[in-house]
Amino acid sequence: MKAGRREENLNDLPAFPPSCGLSLGKVDHYRGEPGAGWTRERVHALFPRLLDRRRVLAGALSGGEQQALAIARALMIGPRFLILDEISEGLAPLVVEQLVEALRSLSQEGIGMLVVEQRLAVAAALSRRLAVMVGGRIALETTSAAMMASAEDQQRYLGVKGRRGQRAR
Q: A Gene Ontology molecular-function term (predicted)?
């Protein structure tokens, strides 16, 4: 199975424009072939802001634009599975919402995801099932809906005082 990984940072690309970053992501490290399925046009349809900012150096992109570029680079190899770590970290709520919508559309296309995320609302929006880790071990496995509905579990496992039916932050 081909998996794409969203790079934690783009330190290797600060002096390159996003279009170059997409070209570098297109090399299929698994078979040495150009990535199948994802083109720049398709990536730009998912993340239109990258098209608008294609001539800006990657290091000058906003945090949300850098996240989009990192995900786009992973998509260029045509993965069936993505591993995403803390996609909402340091981003404004509106930017997080836009990233979540883009990732939901990828999920609807059949791309699987392992999402590591501290914000419950983001994790629940992207998954049907959640696993909560405490001390490096899985302490709770449940559905996203059940976790969002359980103020008790939110408090016990996440230290969040949520109310039933209200999204925890």
A: ATP hydrolysis activity
With both helix axes pointing from N to C terminus, report the angle between 63-75 and 18-25 in degrees, rounded to the nearest 10: 30
Question: Cα angle vertex 113, ends 112, 119, to 5°?
Answer: 150
Query: For 34-55, how does the pLDDT look when each residue is reduced to its tens digit (9 = 90+)?
Result: 446 688 899 999 999 999 998 8
Three-state secondary structure call for residue 143: strand
pTM for this predicted structure: 0.75
Q: What residues are paired with 34 via a beta bridge?
A: 27
Q: Which of 3.20.20.70, 3.30.930.10, 3.40.50.1970, 3.40.50.300 is the CATH number of 3-117?
A: 3.40.50.300
Q: Is the dihedral of CA 127, 72, 116, 59 positive or negative?
A: negative
Maximum pairwise Cα distance, the chain = 51
Distance CA 146, CA 32 (A): 43
